[in-house]
Amino acid sequence: MLALIEIEWWHYATFVVAILGVLALDLGFFHKQAHVVGFKEALGWTLLWFALAMLFAGTLIPTLGPKRAQEFVLGYILELSLSMDNVFVIALIFAYFRVPLELQHRVLFWGVLGAFVMRGIMIGLGAALVLRFDWILYGFGAFLLFTGIKMAFSSEEGVHPEKNPIIRLVRRAFPVTSSFDGQKFFANVGGGVAITPLALVLVMVETTDLVFAVDSIPAIFGVTKHPFVVFTSNVFAILGLRSLYFFLAGLIRYFRYLKVGLAFVLVFIGLKMLIDPHTPDVPPGEVVLPHVPEPRWFQMEIPIGTSLAVVGSIILMSILCSVIAARRGEQAGPAAKPETSDPKRS
What we know:
Elements: H1 9-30, H2 39-64, H3 66-97, H4 101-132, H5 136-153, H6 165-173, E1 186-189, E2 192-195, H7 197-221, H8 227-239, H9 241-248, H10 258-275, H11 304-332, H12 337-340
Antiparallel strand pairs: 1-2
């Protein structure tokens, strides 16, 4: 059996360089020319990113141990599931700004790159907070519990760029052109620099990811407190976001209850953080964040395999219910429309 390794700074550096190389290859070769990403292409890329994530999880078994590999898989599935809600918001943003289909991939590429940087900073800050204040994990758990309950009963939909303070700040700082200029984010107007609507879309996508990260970063610490596992699982989930968007954009009507499923996932992870004793399980010499003292009021250890089964079952059940509801709505057809428009029922 191979000895488990100790994660050092150069492991992070190697991983980041490899990811940046893949992104450069993606933009410079596979998507050098703007084009509409079709369903089959999106499905292929989605499966490729998933396969790469699972391959990476396999490399963690001999290096960090099977438990860390399981934590990575659970963290990856959790982050990818939470990203699905982000996908639907991005679809609304593109529809609001009427972004041409052939330009959407470029926005998502730079959006993913920005999210890559922001998530890294937020994970670093989160790890530092847990290192300094170990009790903050219980605060994270309570926050996720509240967020999940709020999400389950929230009916707010749509995007409101006019209410976004960053969008308002950008509009005040730069003039905005009236139309898109190909793939350009900036344009020369009257001898000065102006931004195109595509740049506003990118800002909106970045701020949206920042909002979603407020939920997803605490959630991943409910799965593992190993910084390298937290970081890599987040990165792989973000990398799959672009292809996941193009894969799901045309299937949004089939995910009616996904938001409810994600709410239950957040509630489960929040409860797990509150009741899990967080007993340390690390090889000698491995550098990880310190464990949280055991709670005195109630504690119950939830194995990683159980957590993975629960999260996966919730997501699959919400998708299954959504598909069944969508199919029934399609079969009902026009006959259902007069009933919903009957003024006596309003």
